[in-house]
Amino acid sequence: MNAVLAPRRERTTAEWQAADAAHFLHPFTDFQSLAQKGARIITRADNIYLWDSDGHKILDAMSGLWCVNVGYGQPALVDAATRQLKELPFYNAFFQTATPPAIELAELLSEVTPPQFNHVFFSGSGSEGNDTVVRMVRRYWDLLGRPERQVIISRRNAYHGSTMAGASLGGMSAMHAQGGLPIPGIVHIEQPHWFELGRPQGLSRDEFGRVAAGWLEQKILEVGPEKVAAFIGEPVQGAGGVIVPPETYWPEIQRICDRYGILLVSDEVICGFGRTGHWFGCERFGTRPDLMTFAKGVTSGYIPLGGVMVGDRVADVLIRQGGEFTHGYTYSGHPVACAVAVANIRLIRELKLVEHVHDDVGPYLAGVFEALAEHPLVGEAQTCGLMGALQLVKDKASGTPFPAELEVGMVCRGHCFANGLIMRAVGDRMIIAPPLVITRAQIDEMAALIRRCLDLTLADVRGRGWL
Ligand code: PXG
User: Fold this and answer.
1) Does 240 contact ligand 1 (Cβ within 6 A)?
2) Is 124 in contact with 357 (CB distance < 8 Å)?
3) What pLDDT score was predicted for residue 6?
4) Does ligand 1 lie within 6 Å of residue 306's CB atom?
5) 127 in ligand 1 pocket by Cβ < 6 Å?
6) Distance CA 188, CA 193 (A)
7) Which atom number of ligand 1 is nearest to the Cα of residue 130?
């Protein structure tokens, strides 16, 4: 047989783990501790379930990494990729060329995004998309003769990616501590996290939303309004722990951006493509962003693709006054990735997944989480569309957290893994974002697993004398 086409050699889990530890540096991983434990090897998937190399079935309540919106095993996406790979596996979009899938996707994206978006700049990932945002925002103000407008305001505990610009925009202190970040011209304000910041002060959610948005205005005045280029935020902070902001927050942020004429950038890498029960998170919260970063759900993660939707305000300046924008990636508009994205968006439409989340499973999940909020370990339960968070606390009545060093979230996550559920821990916040195709019956199945793992965590925490 042709060696290139030889089937993958079957190996035991231990063999995979040994080869993995010997050669593969994983992202966001303590290499030594992984080598000791051995990686979990995922070998196949279908719908909302994964199987590992020992044959265990796992309910994937994280959609891979917030991305498999249409669920695993959708033949339409596989066929789109196969067809495009055969017809034209690659050509670039530099030097005044284009390919049909990239043009089709650009057209389709302007249909499904809010009306101000009629242009797109493609990248290979969300991080690259946010690098493009930084370059484009500064280019915009340069072209308008305002080069001093350089500063981009973001938020603590935001996640905007892992490149130099993405990690700088993000507000993760552990990331800033490595590599001399943030890069110049990026500053942060506090996040709109009511449970952590508003509740202890006795503020209602709505009062706190206005206070938290006010921090943006304070920062603009501190930096000098003539120096501020843009504000960037995730509609709901995802990696930060599914922090659903108060309803008063985003309208006030929009008002402040308008007042000072600064660009509003919505990072929709997680919230886009139906996650919140709307096509995009900005529609859920009523903002009119000038730029919108996307990735993940655009292809349901079947193949890497990201980009930036460019609103008319910015596109008009870039196109009419622009000249060459000296920026782009080899894979900007990759034909196979774009063909998969086109199929994915058509499938989201055909299956009416946005409506499914908005009218059916989103409200159903909210009810299920309300019930889980009764659990003695849960201090707060929040959902938005098909995202959910359970804040684990030591004392339910007062909302007192566990000491961080106990890592109670990790204890709970361990029980989830052992019980066939992938749910993430961000500190002591347990989070989920299941595929949008999930049914009510599957939500019940997930909720039963979550409840069992909360009970096991409670017993564990009591057993260790932490309660
Ligand atoms: N913006 C947001 C809002 C994201 O969530 C990125 C940008 C970067 O996208 P790329 O494609 O470059 O990874 C993300 C990515 C987690 C986790 O632990 C979340 C992400 C990535 C890795 C881990 O929740 N989000």
Assistant:
1) no
2) no
3) 85
4) yes
5) yes
6) 14
7) 7
Which atom number of ligand 1 is nearest to the Cα of residue 126? 9
- What is the distance in A from the centroid of ligand 1 to the CA of 396? 31
Q: Whole-angstrom Cα distance, residue 460 to residue 225? A: 52
Q: Are 443 and 367 in contact (CB under 8 A)?
A: no
User: Does pLDDT of 436 surpass 90?
Assistant: yes
Give the max Cα distance, the chain. Answer: 71
Q: Is the CB of 65 under 6 A from ligand 1?
A: yes
Residue identified by tokens 């915009």 is 140
Determine whether the shortest distance from the Cβ of 270 to ligand 1 is under 6 A: yes
22-37 pLDDT, tens digit each: 999 999 999 999 999 9
CA dist., res. 135 & res. 332, Å (int): 15
Distance CA 123, CA 126 (A): 8
Q: Is 354 in the pocket of ligand 1 (CB under 6 A)?
A: no
Ligand 1 site-directed mutation target among 269, 305, 329, most atoms within 8 Å of CB? 269
Confidence of residue 1 (pLDDT cuts 50, 70, 90): low
**Torsion sign across C-alpha atoms 327, 274, 283, 182:** negative
List, in order of start, the domains of the chain with CATH numbers.
Answer: 47-70+352-463 (3.90.1150.10), 76-350 (3.40.640.10)
Write the pLDDT tens digit of every residue in 363-398.
999 999 999 999 999 999 999 999 999 999 999 999
- 177-204 burial, b if ≥16 CB within 10 A, otherwise e? eeeebbeeebebbbbbbbbbebbeeebe
pLDDT digits (tens, 9 = 90+) for 158-194: 999 999 999 999 999 999 999 899 999 999 999 999 9
- The CB of 234 under 6 Å from ligand 1? The reply is yes
8 Å CB contact between 123 and 327 = no
What type of residue is 334? Answer: H
Segment (H or E) for 447: helix 440-463
Q: Per the confidence metrics, is the pTM higher than 0.85? A: yes
C-beta 333 within 6 A of ligand 1: no
